[in-house]
Amino acid sequence: QVQxxxxxxxxxxxxxxxxxxxxxxxxxxxxYDMAWYRQAPGNxxxxxxxxxxxxxxxxxxxxxxxxxxxxDNAKNTVYLQMNSLKLEDTAVYYCNAGRVVFGKQFxxxxxxxxxxxxx
Length: 119
What we know:
Layout: E1 3-7, E2 10-12, E3 18-25, E4 33-39, E5 46-51, E6 57-59, E7 67-72, E8 77-82, E9 91-101, E10 104-109, E11 113-117
Parallel strand pairs: 2-11
Antiparallel strand pairs: 1-3, 3-8, 4-5, 4-9, 5-6, 7-8, 9-10, 9-11
């Protein structure tokens, strides 16, 4: 059974930092591309950052220079370091594991962790 368990969310003031973690089990973590998405109330889920199985990263323009995605294959964990947080970063953050096998997309999702940026 595949499980992705996020942690590290919470309440932080503008300009503060948080580090999200997502621990994976039930998959061969090292061969999956990993990503963080977020969804604010009334908005669609949006892609925040990705890291491929090879370690290449990509970021949404809104978080470039402030967020860093990384992975530790030995711990089956992906991280999202969030610095200089803004009010608009408030959302539920979701971890995603994905890969394509013979043209078929496999996606797994965590349950989400709430990040609230407020003064």
